[in-house]
Amino acid sequence: MDKNKSDLSENREKLEDEIKQAVQTGDDIRDAVRRITLKALNQGKLNTKEVQQVVSAVVKGASEGAVNQGLKSKDSLLSAVSGLDDALSWVAEASKLALEEAAGDIKTFAKQDVKKITDDLLVLEDIYLETLKRVAKESNKLIGSTLNNIERHARDSGTAVGRQTTEIVNMLNYQLGENLSETVAAGSDSALKLASQLSYAAAGFLDGIAQTLESKLKTTSLKNKK
């Protein structure tokens, strides 16, 4: 097996196990899943493929952790996927910050460049919902039913990541609109190159966000103990 593929598989298994343990422990599941997910996502490159792999591992791990919890599994799963939803919202925010930073260095973006980036943002909610549906099919009756109910409710009432990405995309289109170039940039892979560059920058911003949230969580925990 290719070493990179082996490493990816090992990382996904480790992530699944971390999420599984967090759900089984039952302490602040939502915060724990959000923290673990953010940590997994800020390693290296933050792109759609990486997000898909992490989301899949998180939902699988949560399902495995809840499988022997009986009726409690519903609350555990809801907390876990809510933590995942929170994390994906921060992914969108990190991507926005990376694009805004790049806009300060690049006087004009080609329209297809920005479209590629905003499309990647808008697909985050689809990744989240489709993963819930797919893992539901692979799970036992109780877990599958719970995941399907969560997915249906999320589609009907909306998700945190869906609301966040829509707001960010509208804001970016407004902010960058005047600077968008009608000219098609040289090279058919121009948008992909820009997206790749931004994915590394976004991972850096996400790391900073994760550290800030972790610090706030620790401060709140210390205050509650006093």
TrEMBL record:
<dbReference type="Pfam" id="PF20572">
    <property type="entry name" value="DUF6781"/>
</dbReference>
<keyword id="KW-0175">Coiled coil</keyword>
<feature type="coiled-coil region">
    <location>
        <begin position="5"/>
        <end position="32"/>
    </location>
</feature>
<dbReference type="InterPro" id="IPR046708">
    <property type="entry name" value="DUF6781"/>
</dbReference>
<protein>
    <submittedName>
        <fullName>Uncharacterized protein</fullName>
    </submittedName>
</protein>
